Amino acid sequence: MAGEAMVNGLKYIFVGGKGGVGKTVIAAALAYELAVYNGKKTLLVSLNPVHSLSSLFEQELSGGKVKQVEGSPNLYSIEVEIDEIVERYKEKMSSRLREFFRWAEVPLDPGPFINIATTNPAFQEAAMFDRVMDIVVDESKKYDAIVFDTAAVANAIRLIGLSKLYGLWLNRMIKSRKEALETRYKLAVRKEKILEEIRNDPIIADLISLHEKFKITRGILTDPSQTGFFFVTLPQALPISVVKRFINMVKSFDIPIGGVFVNSVLTREEAERDGTGYLKTKLEEQERYLNIISREMGEYIRGYVRLAPREITGVEALRDVIEDLHTFRPG
Ligand SMILES: Nc1ncnc2c1ncn2[C@@H]1O[C@H](COP(=O)(O)OP(=O)(O)OP(=O)(O)O)[C@@H](O)[C@H]1O
Ligand SMILES: [Mg+2]
């Protein structure tokens, strides 16, 4: 399809919504359009605990590494392995904690503290966000666009919001580390040695670089000329209320809303073909929800996708999704 991509101009595209509403399908369609139709080098990032890009593109895309999607020029994908990043993040945090214990001269075994910190449920989210930051800050240089298929969208949003808080916390840590070193400086006889130590302090360097990464990430993710958060909903009660909640959350964190896609819309023709009358009842119900969607988030709607007779797999099916996004309107 010629013309402009659904998400034209944005570099960082996040796709979220309730479980099973079609986030992966929509994210893949957006990425496919950017890459194949618009010639932009695009990375599709799956942040799901269970990945489905391999079956969607009918090729092996797992393994936690960036792979070029065969048959789809300019399209790259990565299925981020949660266990792997949690393990790596655990090592990173453990060495940080050990360093802090040493610095604060706490005569305790840091082991149990490390265990408590890293088995906290929020730790997985933090590890995931750390990986997202790496992609946004570093790996993004290699791409024109990056589409994130986010399973736990609430977590992702909260983490972006939290990055402000983390920033404040890090600032505080840097400050107190400097103060501690200054005290030593004042007390020291050989001041040169302490100055040297301050310059090469690994904790300060680590905190500053982490803080920089947060600031850069936050700057990018709150910039509406680069980033958009998109939501997928079905014309059903629950997914709509989930999206409404997310929209408010995103707004409160200054994250730009890209728009809403309405998936799996039943058409009148399809409903009328059904002799049992079941689909006609469904259609009436759907109309009510479509009205609610237009009334309550009309300004955000970017496209609709019809309910296909079977699962969406393979690029032909994705191309139909893109076509629908541009041309199909219920009613
Ligand atoms: N418009 C559609 N018509 C028919 N089937 C669809 C449509 N959109 C999605 N599906 C199918 O619905 C299922 C769920 O879609 P998808 O995996 O994209 O949802 P998801 O939101 O990513 O789910 P999860 O929350 O589990 O990651 C898949 O089997 C997909 O092929
Ligand atoms: Mg999915």
UniProtKB/TrEMBL annotation:
Residue ranges annotated for the ArsA/GET3 Anion-transporting ATPase-like domain, each copy included: 11-325
CDD domains: ArsA
Gene3D superfamilies: P-loop containing nucleotide triphosphate hydrolases
Molecular function GO terms recorded: ATP binding; ATP hydrolysis activity
Pfam families: ArsA_ATPase
InterPro entries: ArsA/GET3_ATPase-like, ATPase_ArsA/GET3, P-loop_NTPase
Family: Belongs to the arsA ATPase family.
Protein name as it appears in the record: ArsA family ATPase
Biological source species: Caldiarchaeum subterraneum
